[in-house]
Amino acid sequence: MKKLVLLLVISLMFNFLFAQNRDLLIEHVELLNTTGFFTSKKDTKLVNGEKQLIFEFTDVTEEYIVRVFPAKKFSDLRFDFFSTSDYEVIDSVFFIDEKFYQTKIKFKKIIDNPQLSLKVKAITKDDKIMITEIKLFPVAVMNYSFVKKPDDMFVGEENFINIATNLPSNVILQTNWNTDYPLHTRIISNKGNIAVNINATKTGQMQVPVFLKLKRPVRDSLGNFNYNLGPLNVDFNVKSSRLAFLNTDIKDVSIDEKNRYEGVEIQIDNNPNLQIQKTYRLVDSEEPGAALIGELYTKARLTNNKVLCVLRTFNYHQQTDGFLYIKDGEVSKFITNFSIIPLTKIESVKIMRKGGVWTESTTIYPNEEIIIRIEGQSLAKAKFSVEDLIISKGDTLANRNDVVELKAKVPISIRKKNLNVLINNLPSGKSLNLAEYEVFRPLDYILIDYGNGPKNLFDFAGPEFTPKHIKDLVISFDNDKIDEYDVFYGNQYFDLEVKITGSRGEVLEILTLTSNMVSPGANSPRFQYYNKKNAVNEIRLNQFLSRKTFDLDSWHRIQLVFKPTKATGNRNDTKLVDIIVQKPARFDIDVSFPAGLITKKVGDPGYGDLGGISLAMIAQFSFYQKDKIARYKPYKIGAGFIAINALNFADSNAARDVGVVLIGSLYPTTKESKMTFPLYLGGGYLLSTEKWFFLLGPGIRVRL
Question: Model confidence at 279, in pLDDT bands (50, 70, 90)?
């Protein structure tokens, strides 16, 4: 017991030291790019509670030189780099001056990847591999300025000022307006450029500061991380409009066949010059012959100082394209602005799991967290959901006209197998498919009973010896062990190979049962949803064997091999069970030729007579050694007949007699042999002389 405790302590100490050494494989790391030189010696800081190497970048496509300096006590290790989902290794690995390893990498998504890390492979002399991870925190270095800024604008007019910057993809676009100032602003994409969208609501000299929200931070003058860049000051002299600007209550209208003919009702600002029950043309230019965008029919004035209108749409229009002119014939009367966009349509749905990549498979599983990516047209203003899923929308998820991303949790108790993707609570024609897990679980749910009660498969550590007849061998299952409360494995599949061999190793029968399915038990939250058709509750081998287990003789062996049908190839996936039928003794009949027996008759004087070759036929028991296969103990006990001097033809005066004897014998047990030379000791009754006698001596034994 003390030795076992000592070994356990040594093992724990080794594992602890190994873990420590693994963390200290690298002395420091250097990262070089066009911005500068960064080293883990001085540029490592705690970010979100983790040590991360801080480095700066100015371009998402630039390349980086990486240098890794091994710790001195690990200088005998070989270090290597490999491409990951974060970056691509684009150069060979060089060991320079026997001091450091160097290569060149290029990041794949330096801005949009939530956590970058550098992974280094350390290889020992015996080719064992250890992976060390260095977490990275990129900091943007950005320049920014307005491209061209007009001095004047009109009330109700929207304007766009493009922003020149080296990292436009690091700027977070804004869907909603910032209405804190009379000049309403938002950051949008304008014809491929980052721009400030401005809407003037009052006349006069206006000034508003504009800040750019960033995905990756910049450093401020104090060296702190800042996710806001700016301010960019917007100055305008807002004048009264040449044409009255009329706001609409709807800023996005979709084109469909109904809107083309029947139209959609909207409300527009009232104006004394706006005639009721009149159809106006909506065009995209003040010039004659401008393209027709739609028609506006004024129905009635409302009490809220609005006019109820019917809008029919014919062509697309974006607010960023400029004003819409309300014309009577070819004469411009008013201006307005809103977007006429395609009908919201989903073109594709993709799914990404934690740490994974986008996949077009729409199969989901209970209790998992996923991000759903919806791609299509006119998506930004629509409300998306998925039947029975729990949707939580984060600030960093996309919400654009072409892409919307939803963070979702699949409930444990979800029932439906087909889940509709909804647009404004209506089916979109796209759906997700719910599937049950079928993940390999170790075979610890299998129980085996060969007559001593069920025993777990993992408790079979070596051959099992049984002295009993095996009436049947029953394989059953602890179904409740397969699924845990929040970890699901689902239906399990295994193959069973059975081989029965005789006492000399000869194969008596081979049986193979493939794709045995075992379903989780009633304690699983998903129990009622699993497909249990063809599920196996137990396997009784005698139903499949031609040589039944109860017919097996001494030292017959049953070998069971369990293999997962859908295993990944791990050696530990295969389990072997060996059951051996063991008997304490064996009964047989021996014919032997004792020679030189000393026989002592009861009542006769002296030490007895030394006889010649005799003949003995003995029915006797042989005894097996415990936990050894078909190995005898060195003694036998039996009873039978002995013909004393029956084969002694050299002496014609030899006293011959036949006796009934109880005899014991000592035999060599080193190997099986048809002929052995035992030593006999026993006694009995002579039938001719009618006397009791004792005998002792060697013999020649022939086994039949």
Answer: very high
End residue of a domain, out of 545, 560, 581 = 581
| 250 pLDDT higher than 70 | yes
Residue numbers of the domain that contains 636:
585-703
Average pLDDT over residues 269-285: 92
pLDDT in tens, 76-125: 888 999 998 899 999 999 999 888 999 999 999 899 888 899 999 998 88
How many domains, in total, are found in the chain? 6
Domain of residue 365, CATH code: 2.60.40.10
Who wins on pLDDT, 133 or 676? 133
**The domain boundary residue, chosen from 140, 162, 180:** 140
Contact 27, 72 (CB under 8 A): yes
Give the pLDDT of residue 550.
87
DSSP states of 464-504 as a string? Answer: EEE-S--S--EEEE-GGGT--SS---BSEEEEEEEEEE-TT
DSSP letter for each residue of 231-263: EEEEEEEEE--SSEE--BS-SEEEE-HHHHHT-
Q: 455 and 425, same structural domain?
A: no
CA dihedral sign, ordered 444, 447, 448, 454: positive
Same domain, 338 and 358: no
The set of residues, in sequence order, having a beta carbon less than 8 Å from that of 94 and lying 6+ positions away, is 101, 102, 103
Tell whether the model's pLDDT for residue 3 goes beyond 50. Answer: no
Burial of 495 (0-12, 13-18, 19+ CB in 10 A): middle
310 lies in the same domain as 399: no
The Cα 177–Cα 245 span in angstroms is 18
Write the pLDDT tens digit of every residue in 376-403: 888 877 888 999 999 887 655 788 888 9
- The DSSP annotation for 405-454 comes to EEEEE--TT---SEEEEEETTEEEEEEEEE---B----STTEEEESSS--
| pLDDT given at position 34 | 87
Contact call for residues 446 and 475 (beta carbons, < 8 A):
yes
Cβ atoms of 430 and 346 closer than 8 Å: yes
Asked if 98 and 51 count as a contact pair (C-beta separation under 8 A), the reply is: no
